[in-house]
Design brief:
The protein is an alpha/beta fold. Helix content is about 45%, strand content about 15%. It has one domain: Rossmann fold (3-Layer(aba) Sandwich), CATH 3.40.50. α3 runs antiparallel to α4. The longest helix has 21 residues.
């Protein structure tokens, strides 16, 4: 049983739920690390940590993957990053409130690869749906559930 602190890592570039992360993190007294390639405006507070990494492919992902472990939650819609931190035992929540787990991470990787192949072949694919109030609510619920699971696990 690991009783170390629970931490939240956010793949913060283009993440629309930063304020929601802060709300949940502060309610539970959790350190939150917002990792990006550029400075961004964030809520201020002793639990909010802004991490600016150098430009480059996967630099932010590497920073998160090197630190996230079994008592952590990672907020990302980046499937390769999700697969990496999943191997470390971290819980993953996408910005739309989808939980990635051993039951669906393989399908998420396969879907991502298929969509990449379709784009490369010139087949028009739709982007993500606009970010709705329902998506924000789903995210809050999924993040709260992930934190509660870690707390119950001890």
């Amino acid at each position: 049983m690991n009783s170390g602190p629970i931490q939240i890592y956010v793949d913060a570039d283009a993440c629309p739920v930063k304020d929601e992360v802060v709300r949940v993190g502060e309610r539970h007294g959790l350190d939150m690390y917002f990792v990006s390639n550029a400075w961004m405006r964030l809520a201020e507070g002793p639990l909010v940590h802004r991490v600016v990494v150098p430009d480059g492919p996967d630099v932010a992902d590497d920073w998160i993957a090197e630190r996230a472990g079994p008592r952590d939650v990672v907020i990302t819609s980046d499937i390769p990053l999700a697969a990496r931190v999943f191997k470390n035992g971290a819980r993953i929540v996408t910005q739309y409130g989808k939980r990635l787990s051993d039951k669906n991470i393989g399908m998420a990787i396969a879907s991502r690869n298929l969509m990449a192949e379709l784009r490369e072949a010139g087949v028009m694919t739709s982007g993500n749906a606009s970010f709705s109030r329902a998506a924000r609510s789903d995210f809050l619920q999924a993040l709260e559930q992930a934190v509660q699971e870690i707390k119950r696990a001890g």
